[in-house]
Write a structure and sequence with these properties.
21 helices, two-stranded antiparallel sheet, about 425 residues, 2 strands, about 0% strand, globular, mainly alpha
Length: about 425
């Protein structure tokens, strides 16, 4: 449903009308810039090939083709596979063959795979966010910040991942400086803050590219008077706590597709609570109880509903909301036990590869990324889920996971292509993520 906005805007750019802007578009013009680059390159290649009898195509001709513009994201899809493979090898001591299989699995993640064939911002945004993270892991911070700037051109909220890259770099430097307190997260956090103040000028110098980019982004917020560049009334920031909890359940569901992780998580969850009771760790249990009360309160008071989700029956989220959350006003509280199990399991999975501080940073980044969004849109979960998948030990039963991803993709593409229907305005509509 975003293509009717993205495609005409790109075509305006192809004609050199860079000051023309559709006020319904909320994101910066990263997609359109790369769409014009691809259309220009294709036009140039056809002009060279004209000596072989191939008719040359002008940029206006290439831009007028929806198929050609959609091919922009096919290139990003190939780039994502390459980046995922590099990241898998960077973050794990695995063979090139294993990294290729893991990269294929991440590339086939249904949300990402579906939008590879449409003219949407998601494949390009994912590509530059993941490439930025890769360069951060390699300590190429200037290049990482530059890629972060391009990622922001695709989606402004990617500033969160710029800060995440900087924060994860700080955590790595801290861990190299001294062994972390694996069993005392409060003490570890306190020492981490102390480490930053002790080495403040050195750390500021190393991470200046991220600071500079963040400063520019703050300036953009001030001048633009907000984060979105159009359709402000429909995309005003709110506090939507339910968005974060739905992401936890969504991610846990996709991680548990083969059933093994679900079984291990449930048994592990109850074993942990039983152990805490047997050891008399009542403070931990009291903290969980207080957090539970706070969570239920936030679900009750901070789970607003966007008008679009109640009116637009093209997205699967419409049917989830209509058939589950609107059935009864108290159904939403079922999210609490699901999110509690999801949080426990995701934390434990991440802790197999990352430190407590990194896990805290990931949860904080995801929280600040999602909770300001009023609209329930699964596409918003792409980057955090892929970051979670990359940094967690969930690549067991790879062949089964690949098969399940292929099956989901086949079903969703079949529904999209073969089950169109007539929308209220008389246009042909299709079901999509």
């Amino acid at each position: 449903m975003d293509e009717p906005f993205h495609i005409p805007q790109t075509q305006q750019y192809c004609q050199g009308n860079f000051l023309e802007w559709d006020q319904k578009i909320t994101t910066l013009p990263g997609l359109y810039i790369f769409g014009v680059i691809w259309a220009s390159l294709l036009s140039f290649l056809t002009s060279i090939a004209s000596s072989l009898g191939i008719a040359p195509a002008s940029i206006s001709t290439t831009c007028s083709s929806i198929t050609i513009l959609r091919l922009t994201n096919v290139w990003f899809a190939l780039g994502n596979f390459w980046i995922f493979r590099k990241l898998c090898m960077q973050t794990n001591a695995i063979s090139a063959h294993e990294a290729t299989k893991r990269a294929l699995l991440m590339s086939l993640f249904p949300l990402l795979f579906f939008y590879n064939f449409l003219y949407y911002t998601d494949p390009g945004s994912t590509f530059f966010v993941m490439w930025m993270y890769l360069e951060s892991l390699r300590n190429n911070h200037s290049r990482s910040a530059m890629l972060g700037a391009i990622a922001i051109l695709f989606r402004q909220t990617n500033i969160i991942w710029v800060l995440f890259a900087a924060g994860s770099s700080l955590i790595r430097m801290y861990r190299f400086s001294r062994p972390p307190f694996e069993d005392n997260i409060v003490k570890d956090l306190w020492n981490f803050v102390a480490y930053i103040f002790r080495n403040l000028f050195k750390l500021l110098k190393i991470h200046f590219p991220y600071i500079f980019l963040t400063g520019i982004f703050v300036g953009f917020l001030v001048v633009n008077k907000g984060i979105v560049v159009g359709d402000r009334t429909a995309h005003a920031p709110v506090f939507n706590f339910g968005q974060f909890l739905i992401f936890l359940g969504f991610s846990f569901g996709f991680l548990c597709l083969d059933g093994q992780l679900l079984q291990n998580s449930i048994f592990g969850f109850f074993r942990t609570f039983k152990l805490k009771i047997q050891e008399g760790r009542w403070l931990d249990l009291i903290l969980v109880l207080l957090a539970s009360v706070a969570c239920i309160y936030l679900i009750h008071h901070f789970m607003p509903v966007h008008p679009y989700i109640l009116a637009d029956n093209r997205h699967y989220t419409f049917y989830i909301w209509k058939n589950i959350f609107r059935r009864h006003e108290h159904v939403k509280f079922v999210m609490y036990p699901v999110s509690l199990l999801s949080t426990f399991s995701i934390w434990r999975l991440l802790r197999n590869q990352q430190s407590n501080l990194w896990c805290l940073l990931f949860f904080a980044a995801t929280f600040f990324l999602l909770t300001p969004a009023l609209l329930l849109e699964f596409r918003y979960y792409l980057a955090p889920f892929l970051m979670l998948k990359l940094n967690s030990s969930t690549f067991f039963n790879l062949n089964l996971q690949l098969g399940l991803y292929v099956l989901i993709n086949a079903v969703t593409l079949y529904i999209f292509l073969e089950r169109p229907y007539t929308w209220v305005d008389g246009q042909i509509a299709r079901f999509m993520w």
